[in-house]
Amino acid sequence: LFDISPMVKYRIEGPDAEAFCNKVALRDVSKLKPGRVQYTAWCDDAGHVLDDGTLFRLLPTRFRLCSQERHLPWLLDSAIGFDVEVEEETEAVAGLALQGPTSFAVLREAGFAGVERLKVFDLAEFPHEGGSVTISRTGFTGDLGYELFVSAERALSLWDRLMEAGELRGIRAIGYTALNRARLEAGL
Question: pTM for this structure?
Answer without folding.
Answer: 0.88
